[in-house]
Amino acid sequence: MSVYSYELETIKGEKVSMEQYKGKVLIVVNTASKCGFTPQYTDLQKLYAEYQEQGLEILGFPSNQFGEQEPGANSDVQSFCQLNYGVTFPLFAKTDVRDETAHPLFRYLTEEAPFEGFDITEPSGKMLNAFLQEKLPHFLEGNSVKWNFTKFLIDREGNVIKRFESTDEPLNMKADIEQLL
């Protein structure tokens, strides 16, 4: 298997293959409109604007699996992202990203880039880790996606290079992105 083996559904309901992204550097990210990390859309869009012409694609996958923070229909998600954050990168249909119902792409990504913990020296990492330990301890087990805005960086050959957790700011990915471009 490779990252290019998967078929996806766009936010408008069209079927597409990951093959269309061959030769691009990718960031695959699960998103939500009503999350404390939702403002990351701003910096994801900045990265997209800065690096798209050099071959970066950001693929956003709304998910309602974390505190039901993406309750709207796909059309609502698309409108929200465009109106509030000016998102122009591709968005996909609402997608399960963890547990038995996880889309096979996310199962693959989490196998290739295992969970290594949150940076608890940072306030947001400490807070999210404590929240999950108290409220959803099973979320911390295994390598599955832990929360909204988990980001996977993939090189031009389709290799999963690095996983960035929800608490990792998108702009902190710049050096890694630039190495791959």
From TrEMBL:
Family, per entry: Belongs to the glutathione peroxidase family.
Name of the protein in question: Glutathione peroxidase
Keyword field: Oxidoreductase, Peroxidase
GO terms of biological process kind: cellular response to oxidative stress
PROSITE patterns in the cross-refs: GLUTATHIONE_PEROXID_1, GLUTATHIONE_PEROXID_2, GLUTATHIONE_PEROXID_3
InterPro entries: Glutathione_peroxidase (IPR000889), GPX_AS (IPR029759), GPX_CS (IPR029760), Thioredoxin-like_sf (IPR036249)
Catalytic center residues: 35
Gene Ontology molecular function, alphabetical: peroxidase activity
The keyword Transmembrane helix appears for this protein: no
